[in-house]
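Lab notebook, bench 4. Still working through the backlog of constructs that have no structural model yet. Next entry is a single chain of 538 residues. Request: give me the C-alpha cells for it.
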Amino acid sequence: MITINKIKHHYGEKVLYNEINGVIGPRDRIGLVGSNGSGKTTLLKILMGEMEANDGSIDKPDFVNIGYLPQDGIEVSGKTLYKEAESAFGDILELQDKIAQADEAMLEMDTSSEEYYDLIDVMGEWEQQLEEFQPDRIKSKIERILTGIGFKLSDLDRDTGEFSGGWQMRIALAKLLLKNPSLIILDEPTNHLDIISQNWVEHYLKNYQGAIIVISHDRAFLDSVTNKTFELKMGALNIYKGNYSFYTEESQKQLEVLRKAHANQQKEIREIKDFINKFRSNVKKASLVQSRIKQLEKIDLITIPREEKKIFFRFPKPPPSSAKVITISGLHKAYGDNVVFKGLDLRIDHGDRIAVVGVNGAGKSTLARIMAGQEPYQEGTVEKGINTVISYFAQSQAEELNPSNTVLEEVESAAEGNQEANPRAALGAMLFSGDAALKKTSVLSGGEKNRVALSKMLMKPANCLILDEPTNHLDLKSKEVLQDAINEFEGTVILVSHDRSFLDGVVNKVLEVSKGSMRMLTCNVSEYIQRIESEMNS
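Model written out:
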C-alpha cells in the first residue's frame, strides 16, 4: 500500500535516517517505537507529505488516504458535539445536498428534455454512492463512537467549545475513526483517555478494516493493538513481525547472536594477527603471512550497536511509617455547583500500592492533591498517620519548573534542609550529567522536564509517594526504570495513571473514583478491566 524507499534525513550533523526502507500493508497494525529524539514524529510527517526527506521517496497510490491524530493542539467550537462529529461524513452530507437540490430542480424541468434525463442518470450515480456510504447508519455510528470514548448521550447537544483540552482530543479521535481512512496514524492516543475508554478504543482498532500506525509509550496498548513493530534506532529502521513484547524479546535474541558473532570474529582476528606477528620474519612462511594479511583486510567487521543511555534511580530509603498512612472521613469537595466528593471515607494503610482510576473529570487528581495537602476542601477530615511523610508528584509539576533556573538549581532548591541529598548524583542518574545539568529548564523537552521533576522527589526521604501521571512524556525504557524504583521502594504508593502495563507491574489495589462514589478493589488494573466488562455484560 505505502512503500518507504531509501529515505535519508538529517538535522545538521544529526543523522535521523540513513537510507531506511519499509512497506505498510493494507491491514498492518504497526507500533512505531524508538527513544525520544529517534525521529518517530518526523517520519509520520514525511509519510503524510507535511515534510520532505533529504533523499528517497514515499510511494503511495492515489486511492490511499491518511488520517492523523496528533498528541495535542486540536480545538473546535461553534457546533454541537453531534454536528462536529457528523462533519466527518462531509462527502455523504454533500451528496445528500446535491440529491435534494437536483430533486427541486427536476420539478421545474421539461420532462422530455435531454437535460432532465442526464440529471436522472447523474442522480442514479449519486444515490448508488450514497447507498454504499450507508447514511441511515450515521447517527448510530456517531453515538457508538462518542459514547465508546467516554462522552454521554446528554453531551451530544453541548457546544464543543465547552469541552477541555483532553475532551477536545477525544472529539478529534472520534472524527478520525468516523472518517475511516485507509491508514490511521495515532501519536500517543492514550494520553487523553481513561482506562475504560482506552479499552474500548483497543477493541475498535483491532477490528478496523484499514491500516494503523501507533506511536505510544503504553506497552499494554501496543501489545493489544499491533502485529508489527517498526523500530527507529541509530539511523536505521528495523522491522519485527510481532507486537511490542515480541519485538523486545526478538531484538534481545538478535543482539545476543550479534555479540557471539562479534566475539568469534575478534577471536579469529587475534589468531590471524598472532600468526602474522609470529612468522613475519620467517622467509619460509612469507607467502602464508601475506595470505593472512589479505584475509585480515577482507574481513567485514561486525559492530555491536551502541547502547542507548538509560536512566537509573532509586527513591531515598523511607523513614519508619505508622500502620495508618492517610485516613479520610466525611470529605466534601465541590467547585461551585460541581460536587466532586460528598461524604467520602477512605483509608490508606502502610504498604498499599494503589492505582487510582476512573473517567476523566471524576476527581482522581483532585483526590491526589487533597491527600498531598495541596487542595482545600469544604467539609470532613484528612488525617495523616503520626509518622507519615508525603512526597507528591503533580500532573502539572513538569510545567511548574522555574524557567529561569538551570536544571541543577531547580533540583538544589528541592534539597534545601537535607544535608544527605546529592543533586548532582540524582541528575546524573536521570541523564543530566556535565553541561546538561546547566541547561535552563525552559529549553527542556516534555520528557526532560518530567525527569527533572522526578529528580526533585529524590531530594527528601518520604514513606508515602503520591504520583499523578508520572509517566507522561517518559519513553518505554524510562517507564520500566520508574517501575523498578517503585517496586524497590518500601513505603506506600498511590498512583494516578491510565497506563495499564505500568500499573500492573506495581499495584496491588485499584481505587475506582466515579461521580458520587468510590470503591477499593484488591486486584491489578487488567483484572479490574475484566471485572468491569463482566459487570457491563451481566
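Notes after review: The first helix runs from residue 40 to 47. The chain has 17 helices and 18 strands. Flag for follow-up if needed.
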